[in-house]
Write a structure and sequence with these properties.
The protein is of the alpha/beta class. It contains 17 helices and 14 strands. It has two domains: 143 residues, P-loop containing nucleotide triphosphate hydrolases (Rossmann fold), CATH 3.40.50; 209 residues, no CATH class.
Length: 410
Amino acid sequence: MNVTNYPKREKYLKRIKPLIGQPNFVKIFTGPRKVGKTILLRHIMEEIKSVNPEAHIIYVNAEVKKYWNIKDGKDLYQYIHPQITGCTQDKFLFLDELQEIDGYQGALSAFYADKQCDIYCTSSSSNLITGELISYLIGKTLNLAVHPLDYREFMDFHSLENSRETLDKYLHFGGLPALRLVGLSADMAYEFLRLCYYSIMFQGLIGYEKLRNVDSLDFLINYLIENTGSIFTGCNLSSTLKAKKIDIAVPVVINYLKAIANNYFIHKVNRIDFNARIFGRGEKYFFEDLGLRNALANDRQIGQDTHKLIENAVFLSLLYNDYKVFSPKQSDKHVDKELSFMGTREGKRCYIAVETSIADEEKRAKVISNFELVDESSPKYIVTLDDDIVNDDYNGIHHINLRDFLLQEI
């Protein structure tokens, strides 16, 4: 792979550089397929070689034909151990798409126990960091989530200036790094993105997660596209299934939903009240990459989905800035208030309302009133597509254009 075709993703390299050469932690990079985890590993290898030209680097990619003879943890150990034994140079072990190797846990645990290698892994499944590996290496792993390009990176990768046209491209084509190679014409970009989805579906969902009902999977993906950011419950899903005369049990669909989330294709956002208590029922779902979502939608959907796209983009910006994201709502006989998001990070909160526009005075007043239950000290934003913002501060509630919001440190 020629990594010179891809700019370095400095925000990830900046985080990992202080940890290079420290074998006390296994560094794990997680994220969806095609998000650039392999490219990031290659850039880390370049960084190691620039500082330590004699470094001994061992690389295994479980999805590349060259390594298909490594079928399980025993094969992995037998392949790597001879390359380590007797080597006096600093050793670095890179294991790409580790979840594809059955029983990898024992081999990786053995390499870690020897403390002879600085270890880096990637995975396209959250199972690696939520159960499969953690039981072997409790407290000995560092996880770094790798996401599609943010808006600033998107401009950098595609050599674009900050403009409404560029924002529209970002909202429509998303942030998969390899789009740089095919360009941003709609036909080529969406064809490439559909191929990426098929890779996620067949390798991740059908291959790794063992989902067998492709029709059910297609239905659920289309349902999520149509209902991006809407309240999702088993009850409203059941009603949709009955209306469409689709014979799929709701528990089966819920299991499929979990599998899709495990592969970083979607994210669940829990609903809370303004006291941060999680509701017992209902959640919202947003897509990890807008381009993948739109490539599977039809032109009519994309044209009608402006609010869904900007809300999804704001969610991703919070995610990229290390916030845990919730959807706040308070509804009882005394009050009915709802905002798009509450983000929490290091004990602090921010609150956000997302609207296409608040140029209309009545609409603006209603949106502002939804912040009445928010404490004064928390940052508050109304994010819109409005370009001509006359008043950007309504008693501490900041009205900000989406482009500016995506470029600022929240």
